Structures
1.
Amino acid sequence: MKAVALTEYLPIDHPHALRDVELERPVPRGHDLLVEVHAVAVNPVDAKVRAPKDRIEPYPRVLGWDASGVVVAVGEAVSLFRPGDEVYYAGDITRPGSNQQYQRVDERIVGRKPTRLDHAEAAALPLTAITAHEALFDRLGIDPDGADAGRSILMIGAAGGVGSIAIQLARRAGLTVIATASRAETSDWVLSLGAQHRVDHQGDLVDQIQGLGFEHVDHVAIFNDMRHWEAAVTLIRPQGSIVAIDDTDLPMPMADLKTKAASLHWEFMFARPMHRTPDMIEQHRLLNRVADEIDAGRLRTTLARTLSPINADNLRRAHAWIESGRGRGKLVVAGWGDEA
């Protein structure tokens, strides 16, 4: 089968950073589905895993943690899906990724593909939908059905993939969303998704948000790096909560967070499959709920750009786009170039 993989960790402009390879088709066992992959999305985690380092893989390593496709075979313990089902998922960072024609993935972290979306539109959603959903509702404890309506949330880095779905989920829950974006294109994007206020993260966030009439906000979601940590701590209300998704080597002073009795939560959507937690099936349920919301017209895909076909050249382009830090929404690579 066709796949795109690496054996060396090289800068993305190197022609061997990602390579076209032929691999054996996997065989599903246990709770695994074998999915024929039709489209994949590229996320910051792909670029981080691929980042240059002094290491050689003895066998081609396949990246990719977002996919949409069709089940073609199932393991003996599978009960949620059958061959022919259209599915979407983010997968498990400890296993081979989705940049291959056929992928094994545990059924408990797979959802049914939204029927109103094609595979490219669906592939844009799983990783960011899981991250945003878990960040807002599991980590921050916001009620998704509106019990916390009227509360405020500042989303830093709101125009990216996670922010693009988080804005929609927060608005569905009745929250007042203040989104950061620094360019006209990304500002228009976050407002089109439902944010009521937009501020520029290149400027002074505290001054801008207090200028909108907010002395404090109830929640802060940091969807990029931690360079705005001190502003987040200043803006969070006493006993409020902050969630972050990116690891960091930047200083994170905690004294002011402590005196506010405010909380910090980390969100890592791979935690459930990585640690085989007893509740890992929650990601299956979560993705099905998102599919229901999409099909009902209450949420929309965050797809911003599609490349075709799935090959090393286009995936190198996608990684470069991610590394530029200037994208909005999601970039998807679709098809293998041999479709009838």
Note: The longest helix spans residues 126-139.
2.
Amino acid sequence: MEHSYDFDLAVIGSGPGGQKAAIMAAKLGYKVCVIDSKSMVGGVCVNTGTIPSKTLREAVLYLTGMQQRDLYGASYRVKEEITISDLLARLQHVVGREVEVVRAQLLRNHIELLPGFASFIDPHTLSVDVEGTSIHRTLTADKIIIATGTVPARPANVDFDGIRVLDSDQILSLERVPDSMVVVGAGVIGVEYASMFAALGTRVTLVEKRPQMLDFCDPEIIESLKFHLRDHSMSFRFGETVASVESGPRGTITTLASGKRVAAEVVMHSAGRQGNTGGLNLDLGGLAADNRGRLAVDEHYRTTVEHIYAVGDVIGFPALAATSMDQGRLAASHAFGEPANELRGLQPIGIYTIPEISYCGRSEAELTSDSIPFEVGISRYRELARGQITGDSYGMLKLIVHSDTREILGVHVFGTNATELVHIGQAIMGCGGTVDYLVDTVFNYPTLSEAYKVAGLDVANKLRAVARFRTQMATAEPSAL
């Protein structure tokens, strides 16, 4: 049956996934609209998540002078008394510019941006409550992509007041840098903010119900991060759950299930996020979310309803802006029959702690579990001229290489520019390159990229030693064995 729809594609949400889905469909020549609140153009990524937190991190690094302390002494600071105003000045500028960039990109691609809140009437029909008015607009679309992101999970036993007890979206509303803080949840968001406030001089206590933090990362890298966080007076409470949080004019008391009590000026609760699907009337669209508000999708990001797709944080792990962008592109391509490839196994993970972490590919534990032979090469920033120049004596790069084929299986980086450096390894792995490329190539000097050369030589020397020993054993006289 022939249908006539108002739009070929309606995208709910203007975050990274929604933007790229809309632009991809527009590039293919389809009529597209994006529905989102005026105050959230760019999504959580631009307004309360990725961009604000990473801008805050850069402000912290600069104002505290942390990256120069190896050169100028432990007391070195660019500004003695750092205020919230100092931190937010740059943040507000960057967020404003990013919102304009998103608007301009949508406009340039003739995508209609509808300010409001969408909900399903039926699988092809959406109701849009036009923001700031009492108008309810109804529109139809051939394809629909849900990219509504997430909101902080708020457990019932915690009373969030937005002043003393905050979620991760509210943390930027603090009026001053606190002297002490409890961070509940050692996931990516919790650890990132915990490290930033620790760098500012806040005494941070990190509470996590699991026995370890960031357990999807390389254990050696995480141990290095914990060492540096402890050096900034951070305390860890692993294997602990929060029983209650009490707040008053002077501060808070966090009571743990084990009976411990932790006093602090403020508490940031960052133990998980919830899919932002509560107002969508999913049942009218033929959909259902799980108990955390997330939607299940197939390998093409299609939901259980054939013409409805979902991308970004609303579908769960890895819930990163970078992966969300690619998911949006792929979903729109599949929806309209456009060939598109995905390098799912080579998606880099970047964690903007202080110091930062990034990795791509597989870990030692995964390879050992799958009985894949490998060798490891290590390069430490303190052995690089650039590491000395930048004052980073703790950074490291770990290279994991297949013992037989010499293919690069994983790259794990800790320290300055980790999230930039990881892409060199990612590119080589994507092209099927081996460690021999790193051994044979020439890197600019002095650069942190030289870490690849050093780690590559480390691996090559280890593999050569094994090969030499095996050759000697094979050619030795039986009587000599």
Note: The two ends are 81 Å apart (CA to CA).
